[in-house]
Amino acid sequence: xxxxxxxxxxxxxxxxxxxxxxxxxxxxxQGDMIAFGPVNKAEDLALPYSNTRLSIKxxxxxxxERMFGYSLDKEDADAGIIKETPKEYPNRxxxxxxxxxxxAVTLVDVNMDNPQFQDPWWVKRRETTxxxxxxxxxxxxTCFCTSMGSGPFDETGLDVLLTELPxxxxxxxxxxxxxxxxxxxxxxxxxxxxxxxxxxxxxxKAEQTLxxxxxxxxKDKNMMELFNARFWERVQFACINCGACTFLCPTCWCFDIQxxxxxxxxxxxxxxxxxxxxxxxxxxxxHNPRDHKVQRVRQRFMHKLKYYIDKYxxxxxxxxxxxxxxxxxxxxxxxxxxxxxxxxxxSAGTKA
Length: 352
Description:
Blueprint: E1 3-7, H1 11-19, E2 23-30, E3 33-38, H2 57-60, E4 64-71, E5 83-84, E6 92-97, H3 99-112, H4 120-127, E7 129-134, E8 160-164, E9 168-173, H5 176-184, E10 189-190, H6 193-208, H7 223-227, H8 231-236, H9 244-248, E11 255-262, E12 265-272, H10 293-312, H11 323-327, H12 334-343
Parallel strand pairs: 2-6, 6-7, 7-8
Antiparallel strand pairs: 1-9, 1-10, 2-3, 4-5, 4-12, 8-9, 11-12
């Protein structure tokens, strides 16, 4: 695979060459937050930055998306026929996302693209998007990615990984797609062994700053014992079911589908939803299997930290980005819940 140096003074040349074949998205400032948006020149990039408010998930899975349209006009020959809303899938580059977000995309893949079911829009957007990650030299105090099987310089899900050096970026291709991009890009020079050594030192230093949470026992825990544990009452006590944690989470994939009609035309729209909302599990009969807050809070953590592990034989459905820790208005910390679940035991005959 290819490794090149992109001098910061040549970043605009690099971007210009990307724009000749791709739409370029990257971390840009939007009001008081940083989000992924169009990038035309190096000055548009909000660098340096810790992380975006919303994850990269919305690039593949929009917060609100028209799926189908239909006509209710009886004079229309196609009245009552639902037709897929046309969509465009341009070749895109997402530049500067953090490795935790790239890792998260691979975790959502198991739901959106598996042997039984494929979400066609997710699959197509994944195929036409190249991900250029930016290693995280200074993780936030709320980050715990190394404990979740990721890391500040994790290569999972990325096509290219950038490491920021004093006056340049070391770009390392990780896939054939990334290799092709770097070979065609302008504004690059060959990387030296000294560049590689400096990048490795930066990676090691960043990893050493992160806390280590033990998750090794989660896969062996009895599901029903965890489900019935008494600590859920304590965990849920302060929660106000605002849903901020799930909307910011890069690995949450729940959605709702609604029809919106205006006059004689209608749209079927897919919107992000949250298991924290009382209406999420409300049946048409009026029955709600999770009508109490404690049930909804438990569902969020059990899905990420137990159900996902048991179903897919993989690590937790969490990448340790810390967004939910930062945004929770009542200071519920998933790191504390991980410890409660991992250390839970009933050997003494009582439940924690």
